[in-house]
Design brief:
- The complex is a heterodimer of chains A (234) and B (336).
- Chain A has 234 residues and is an alpha/beta fold.
- Chain A has 10 helices and 10 strands.
- Chain A folds into 2 domains: 161 residues, P-loop containing nucleotide triphosphate hydrolases (Rossmann fold); 67 residues, no CATH class.
- In chain A, a hairpin with a 2-residue loop joins strand 9 and strand 10.
- In chain A, helix 3 runs parallel beside helix 6.
- The radius of gyration of chain A is 17 Å and the shape is globular.
- By secondary structure, chain B is mostly helical.
- Chain B has a single domain, classed as ABC transporter involved in vitamin B12 uptake, BtuC, CATH 1.10.3470.
- Chain B is globular, with a radius of gyration of 21 Å.
- The chains are: A alpha/beta (234), B mainly alpha (336).
- Chains A and B meet through helix 2 and helix 3 of A and helix 6 and helix 7 of B.
């Protein structure tokens, strides 16, 4: 059974729909990457899954359960986590408190999750008592991902995790994403660095104008001359 | 030495008392602003309402104690205060449920909520006047206020440091509340969730933080602290329907000076405005009196910065200066 499935989704912010019939399917072992030009509805697709905007038709299922238009505070306990592109850390709170907020819904002891996040992102351990607002862009992205992982998700949604990062950090974040996936968490992410991201994607979705244009494995899409010409800059 | 004692009585003690009241009020305003993003103009009247709740409970409790012949070791108003704070918390939850929550549900803008809160302010005042009339009341009907006089004769002073019992309690309870709030916000999960929501409401929602619960807790804390502040103010002066409506503006100034949305800033701002008010109406010439012989003739007998009637302007002067020099407030506040 698919981990998450979008079946002919139409969604928007109340006006004209931005997504006009999107289909996607991700398994727990997958890293799904959504690429496409600006305004294609890439981030909108993630937000639609996470209940941040109105889905007007179609259905979203997660572990076989219909979660269409469910709100985030219901979705997080079900195992869904979302890292927004911007404003994705609590700037006035310490790194440690940011991670604790990710575990807000958990009633059990989450100290082992904290340890594993600090193992995953060693720079954060040194700065655990520093305010997240004082960190560099790359470290903030680590805090944001760490926060999202604290709720022990089975599907992690990432909105442009590499936006605004230096090339060194982009690679580091991508490596961590692959590691997180290897630990059994399905990944669905939007990415501007299409070439790099599709290289490790097990599933790639090219969106344009609110619709699916191409779907395949990352390698297939990279090899497809038409995709390369229209969406990957030749 | 007498002059120094006079200074302590008029500036330090009065400043502490006024600062405590401002701080407790400003914390509520700043918490509500941080979580719900609107200026709660009815907060002064919530303070008054809290004071009336304490007054009613005190009347009942005193009558009961008298009929049973019990003499309480601590003053009855202080004794019933925890119950009054709980009742006030429930009342503000009701106000939120009845007036603000429906507007939020419709996605009302902050300015709409602000205007609604002015309506709520007038309504609370009206209801109080309806039941209690427009006159002033005092908590001290049977027994006079206990006044502590600290003998300072070992310093060679004939004047005494004077603290009334309610003032003593007021400063003590403010310290306890501020400490309790500090531990709540920094140690408890819900307190951290409150800070998270004030910091970034969208991300708090995405993290699965129960924002409705956070809103309720915010009202409970703000309502309870407002009741404490209102009761203290009523104990220090008298109880009347427009008790705290008159000080809502300096309280707002305190919250803004501290950085809106920042609890510690509100406390610091409260004391800053409180001390500034007492210091600026204090006649500094008093402190120069012992040196009168050595000073030139032209120094006037009245060196207060502003006359007492203009006390209210002090808060705004501080507000304007802080906003000019550091627009985010002393501590960095949240944007609107």
């Amino acid at each position: 059974m698919a981990l998450v499935k979008l079946d002919n989704i139409e969604a928007g912010y109340g006006g004209a729909p931005i997504l006009k019939g999107i289909n996607m399917e991700i398994e727990a072992s997958d890293i799904g990457v959504i690429v496409g030009p600006n305004g294609a509805g890439k981030s909108t697709a993630l937000k639609a899954i996470f209940g941040l905007l109105d889905v007007t038709s179609g259905a979203i299922t997660f572990h076989g359960e219909n979660i269409t238009n469910a709100l985030p505070d219901k979705l997080v306990p079900k195992g869904l986590s979302f890292v927004p592109q911007e404003h994705n850390v609590f700037t006035s709170m310490s790194v440690n408190e940011n991670l604790e907020m990710g575990a807000f819904i958990r009633e059990d002891d989450f100290s082992d999750s904290l340890t594993s996040i600090y193992d995953m992102f060693p720079p954060l351990k040194e700065k655990r008592n520093q305010d997240a607002g004082e960190l560099s862009g790359g470290q903030r992205q680590m805090v944001a991902m760490g926060r999202a992982l604290m709720s022990k998700p089975t599907l992690l949604l990432l909105d442009e995790p590499s936006a605004g990062l230096s090339p060194r950090y982009v690679l580091e974040i991508f490596e961590q994403i692959v590691k997180v996936n290897a630990s059994g968490v399905g990944i669905l992410m939007v990415e501007q660095n299409a070439q790099q991201a599709l290289a490790f994607a097990s599933k790639g979705f090219v969106l344009a104008n609110g619709q699916n244009r191409f779907t395949g494995t990352g390698k297939e899409l990279l090899a497809d001359p038409e995709v390369a010409k229209s969406f990957l800059g030749g | 030495m007498n002059e120094l004692i006079f200074f302590v009585n008029k500036v330090l003690i009065s400043g502490m008392v006024l600062g405590s009241i401002y701080a407790l009020g400003a914390v509520g305003i700043t918490l509500i602003f941080g979580i719900l993003r609107f200026a709660h103009f009815a907060h002064g009247d919530v303070m008054t309402l809290g004071a009336f709740v304490t007054f009613i409970l005190t009347s009942f409790a005193s009558a009961m104690a008298a009929s049973m012949g019990i003499v309480t070791p601590i003053p009855v108003p202080i004794l019933v205060l925890p119950f009054a704070m709980a009742i006030s918390a429930v009342l503000v939850l009701g106000i939120d449920w009845g007036f603000y929550a429906p507007l939020r549900k419709r996605g009302a803008k902050p300015v709409t909520l602000l205007i609604a809160s002015i309506g709520v302010a007038l309504m609370i005042q009206g209801v109080i006047r309806l039941f209690s009339g427009v006159g002033s009341r005092t908590f001290y009907v049977d027994a006079p206020k206990t006044i502590f006089r600290f003998d300072m004769s070992f310093l060679g002073a004939t004047r005494k440091i004077i603290v009334t019992e309610p003032q003593f309690w007021m400063v003590g309870l403010t310290l306890v509340s501020v400490l309790a709030l500090h531990f709540f916000l920094t140690r408890s999960r819900l307190g951290k969730g409150m800070r998270a929501m004030a910091d970034n409401a969208a991300l708090a929602q995405v993290s699965g933080i129960n924002t409705q619960l956070v809103i309720r807790v915010t009202w409970i804390i703000a309502g309870a602290l407002a009741c404490l502040a209102g009761t203290m103010l009523a104990l220090d002066v008298t109880l009347k329907p427009d008790l705290a409506f008159n000080i809502i503006l300096p309280i707002f100034a305190a919250a803004i000076v501290g950085g809106l949305g920042h609890s510690y800033g509100a406390i610091a701002g409260g004391f800053l405005v409180g001390f500034a008010e007492t210091m600026s109406v204090f006649n500094w010439a008093v402190l120069l009196r012992p040196f009168k012989g050595a000073l030139p003739e032209w120094i006037p007998n009245d060196l207060s910065i502003v006359p007492t009637e203009y006390k209210l302007t002090v808060a705004f002067t501080i507000l304007i200066i802080v906003l000019l020099v550091k627009p985010t407030g002393m501590f960095k506040g949240v944007g609107s």
